[in-house]
Automatic annotation (TrEMBL):
Catalytic activity: deamido-NAD(+) + NH4(+) + ATP = AMP + diphosphate + NAD(+) + H(+)
Annotated protein name in UniProt: NH(3)-dependent NAD(+) synthetase
Keyword line: ATP-binding, Ligase, Magnesium, Metal-binding, NAD, Nucleotide-binding
Family to which the UniProt record says this protein belongs: Belongs to the NAD synthetase family.
Catalytic class of the enzyme: ligase
Binding site for deamido-NAD(+): 148, 181, 188, 268-269
Domain NAD/GMP synthase as annotated: residue spans: 29-273
Function recorded in the entry: Catalyzes the ATP-dependent amidation of deamido-NAD to form NAD. Uses ammonia as a nitrogen source.
InterPro entries assigned to the protein according to its UniProt record, in alphabetical order: NAD/GMP_synthase, NAD_synthase, NH(3)-dep_NAD(+)_synth, Rossmann-like_a/b/a_fold
Residues where ATP binds: 51-58, 168, 197, 219
Pathway recorded for this protein: Cofactor biosynthesis; NAD(+) biosynthesis; NAD(+) from deamido-NAD(+) (ammonia route): step 1/1
GO biological-process terms attached to the record: NAD+ biosynthetic process
Amino acid sequence: MSSNRQQEIAKALDVVPPFADEAALVAEVERRKAFIKNCLRTSGLKVLVLGISGGVDSTTAGRLAQLSVEELRSETGDAGYRFIAVRLPYNVQHDEQDAQVAMNFIRADEEETVNIADSVLGLAEQVSHLNHLADARRDFVTGNIKARIRMVAQFAIANANNGLVIGTDHAAEAVMGFFTKFGDGACDLAPLSGLVKNQVRSIARYLGAPESAVHKVPTADLEELRPGKPDEEAHGVSYVEIDAFLHGQQVSQHAYDVIVRTYDNTQHKRILPLVP
């Protein structure tokens, strides 16, 4: 029996119920592709842009994007529809090999690499308020700068190509506010929205992603002092518990308290700017 709060939060995040069977999973994949294609049609644009980290979320969203533009080309005869996959490393990414595995799987129409290190360091050097911070706090703030610079780069590429930027947010990240406001939380369309983490993994596996990508330990990888810091360590709860919570299943009191508290504390990330 789920609590009223669980039901309220799941409804607010438009959480997709557990897949009843393979047919339900396939139907959801088709619905997501139709959504992506409709976003392009209604916008009058033909190009999609997404940063690929090597994690299961961007791997899944990237492959869905590529399949969608391929279908649009086939349906319309218009070769202008295309997908640009972007690598956005900060110097050398510690798990670059995983990112390349993802890129090889996605097989995007175009691949681009933008190293954000100079931009991040250049900006950080000009912000004097960073100088007095303790090392760990400065590292955290700089991590958010990385996320925002990455989104600036993606929007620049999209603008240059009259395209749309894809985001990778899904319900299990949304409930925890686990994204940088106006960083990776900024996008034109979010085709994974409403899915829990295990559903994203299931879709990745269905699409044929390598098992190493499907089961890669999720990490935002923004902190230089802790490269590859697992999401679950930052959350204080596991994705298994977060998924269960969102699907109205019983979770431990600790997990329930952490998830509800974090959801309430990060509400500002999920709404438009406050106005009078």
